Amino acid sequence: MEAKPIEQLHAEKLGKWTLALIVLIGALFIAIVLCICLGTVYIPPDRVLAILIGNTAGIPAYEVNIIQQVRLPRILLAGVVGACLSIAGTALQGIFKNPMASPSVIGISQGAAFGASLTIVLGFTVVAGDFAIPVSAFLFAMLTLFLVYMLGKVEGALPTTTLLLAGIAVGAFFSALVSLMQILAAQGSTGTMERVVFWMMGSLSLANWSQFWIVLAFLIPGFILLFAFSRDLNAMIVGETHATSLGVDPKTTTKIMLSGAALVTGAAVAFTGVIAFVGLIVPHIMRMLIGPDNRILFPASLLGGAIFLILTDTVARTVMAPQELPVGIITALMGGPFFLYLLRRKREATEW
Amino acid sequence: MVNMRLSVQGIEFAYNSVPVLKDVAFEAKEGEIIGVLGPNGSGKTTLLRCMNRALSPSKGTVMVEDKEIGSMSRREIASEMAVVPQNCVITFPFTALEVVMMGRNPSMDRFQREAKEDIAIVKRSMDATSVSGLAGRSMNQLSGGERQRVIIARALAQQPKIMLLDEPTLHLDVNHQMEIMELVKELADREKLTVIMVSHDLNLAARFCDKLILLSEGRVLSAGKVPEVLTQDNVEKVFKIRSLVQYDERINAYSLTILGTVSAN
To answer: Residue B154 contacts by C-beta under 8 Å, 6 or more apart in sequence?
Structure first.
């Protein structure tokens, strides 16, 4: 086997990073425009682009309205939610050194959903506004992480089996609490079951502009925090003793990664419920494509997650039109088999 | 005290108020290889971890030349001392090059990318441990010996004055054990590295170390040149074996022969 010189290997790696970012940004733009076109009313791309740049001359007002008030906020919300879940998955997989970890698999999405729906049912939003929902979701996401960690750890480490078992138990518990609370709060009024399904399966059907801005306001600091510690996370993946000897503080890094993941998961779940498996699939695909270095994995997961959820949500709202599916059904239909595939591979090989 | 590279003074450490290290002190010059020996639970690994402040000793100081480790940041410590831990199992497929490049972390700012100089240092380090040819390979595809050489290259890339090795030959076959120890010896000579090495292998330690420290229940039982430390009495007391240390002209070093066990009572 011929060995390439180190300078060349390093340059190739950086080249690959740049290429990946360009391709993903391009794909995100295409996905946004394409998905705005699609829906009960088809609007051709040229008109979509015209409306997006604010040139509405000669375009029917209802089309402008559909795009500006319905499709665009929904697609952008899908983008930021997908990005949140994916970078949270990247952080969790890294810190637990476990490719099976993701916000929904280890139950923190369900914990966040409980926090969010508690705030809504108790009426805190009347006083504090919609911003209270992700804040509460974040706090409950932290609480859930703590629970899963305490339940699942074996001599300070978190093996796959106990991590998954603790996550399933805690997730199921909070799911049940959310459902119970929705049913009790509604007291038999119509639409109760729809609300339960909304929180359990996740849906973007209630998207609006203010939700997008709020989630974005959480995504930006969350991403910066995680990205800032991405090199420290690399060292942690090699091992804690290794990290210490490289000048990285393992405790600080762990805290940053977990709270960053909880922050963006809380924001993602607050307005859309538990959309499962996004944070599992996207980081894994990105890692297969561009390698395990978290300095590229965080930005790539951010973009890839946005693309993934924009596309799956478009499938959810068009595949059975006019009937709309919760997007969580689509992601779970893809994620379930993917999860099993990962589990088998983990059993068969140590190579990821 | 000329040329003292490293000076460890009166280190004490306790896990949950059970004392593990009691008044441990020693000194090392540049280019010296010091072996830390002792049975399981004698505090060897704890001593290493106190030296690079992975653990904070309750008493005592560690000085690198004229600087006290306790007053330095983790990153500053990392550019003075590099650690080669026991073994590593990496979940995700980092390449050997990526792992060695991590050795440059302590000297880089948070958002800084590797400069030409960093790449040159990494290249020199990988050449020194003969792993340049493995640069593009995933760590998980390498053998135990190859992985250990990559980790030593990473330690070199930190450009430290002191290298701490925690049982560097554990789980390696005989051939790789010799290879790693010859490499360590060569690096100590050529790069003037001070090496502190924890080992279970009395024979390898006797052969490759300039000085030995024998730990027993957290105390230094004996310290000094190989034949002064590995006396029949000392070895019998600490390891419960009868042994003989001789200078072997064929290898130009000391070698230890185990004669038999001593019953514990």
So the answer is: B82, B99, B100, B102, B103, B125
